């Protein structure tokens, strides 16, 4: 699908400059995890911004511009909402390189497990898809890299180190639960902040999962 965006880069830049009241150098990105980045002290301000903003409405642009200009201390809510749910005609265009999803592993079918987790804890409200991820290098394997949630694609990836029979199914499910919580997080909330940890702690296997992970850390990092 190809849709003409509302602005081109030049137009977006001049709109933002007008609202922010400062010169801006704008780079468009297709970054899936970082939608806007800039450091406020630069002049001109170098801004990297995701391409979905070419389709932003006026109120979203005003929010971004005020933030860039220092008149809003944090990312304004209207901007967060836009990032969380860009209009559907935009969402389809942003990610041209769609990943191929692979829910069926050697041992576990993530689609089935997600379905159970979704029904049991989230009343079916999780719309994310799920896939085994690529192998993660040994150095980077720690608690958080057992899974990842990609908001822009609405996909949960689970590390293939969990696709072994020696890893209990309930632990895989717990990891999926963890990522589901990320999927429900409002934009701007700390990924592992208090609200998140409270919700995580409500899972009946929370304590067991921490223990199991600690006891089996070698298993999870040795492949
Ligand atoms: Zn996490």
Task: Give a brief description.
By secondary structure, this protein is an alpha/beta fold.
Topology at a glance:
Blueprint: H1 9-20, E1 24-29, E2 36-37, E3 45-50, H2 58-68, H3 77-84, H4 88-94, H5 110-122, E4 129-132, E5 147-150, E6 155-158, H6 169-184, H7 194-201, H8 206-215, H9 217-221
Parallel strand pairs: 1-3, 4-6
Antiparallel strand pairs: 2-3, 5-6
Helix pairs in contact: 1-2, 2-3, 5-6
The structure holds zinc ion (ZN).
Describe this structure in words.
The protein folds into two domains: about 80 residues, Zincin-like, CATH 3.30.2010; about 110 residues, 2-Layer Sandwich (Zincin-like), CATH 3.30.2010.10. About 40% of the residues lie in helices and about 10% in strands. It is built from nine helices and six strands; from the N terminus they run αβββααααβββαααα. The strands form two sheets. It has a three-stranded mixed β-sheet, covered by helices on one side. A three-stranded mixed β-sheet has the order 4-6-5, covered by helices on one side. The protein is elongated and about 60 Å long. The structure holds zinc ion. The site of zinc ion has 5 residues, from helix 6.
- Beta-strand share of residues: 5-15%
> What is the domain tally?
2
CATH domain fold name of the largest domain: Zincin-like
Helices, by number, come to 9
Q: List bound small molecules.
A: zinc ion
| End-to-end separation | 40 Å
User: What kind of sheet is the major sheet?
Assistant: 3 strands, mixed
CATH class of the largest domain: Alpha Beta
């Amino acid at each position: 699908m190809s849709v003409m965006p509302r602005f081109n880069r030049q137009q977006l830049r001049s709109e933002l400059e007008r609202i922010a009241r400062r010169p801006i150098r704008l780079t468009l990105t297709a970054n899936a995890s970082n939608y806007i980045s800039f450091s406020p002290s630069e002049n001109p301000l170098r801004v990297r911004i995701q391409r979905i903003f070419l389709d932003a409405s006026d109120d979203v642009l005003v929010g971004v511009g005020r933030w860039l200009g220092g008149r809003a201390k944090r990312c304004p809510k209207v901007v967060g909402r836009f990032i969380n749910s860009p209009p559907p005609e935009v969402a389809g265009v942003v990610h041209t390189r769609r990943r191929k999803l692979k829910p069926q592993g050697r041992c576990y079918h993530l689609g089935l497990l997600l379905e159970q987790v979704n029904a049991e804890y989230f009343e079916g409200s999780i719309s994310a898809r799920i896939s085994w991820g690529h192998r993660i290098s040994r150095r980077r394997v720690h608690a958080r890299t057992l899974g990842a949630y990609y908001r822009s694609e609405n996909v949960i990836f689970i590390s293939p180190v969990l696709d072994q029979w020696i890893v209990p199914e309930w632990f895989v499910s717990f990891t999926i639960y963890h990522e589901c919580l990320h999927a429900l997080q409002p934009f701007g909330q700390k990924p592992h902040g208090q609200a998140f940890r409270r919700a995580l702690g409500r899972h009946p296997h929370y304590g067991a999962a921490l223990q199991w992970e600690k006891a089996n850390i070698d298993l999870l990092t040795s492949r």
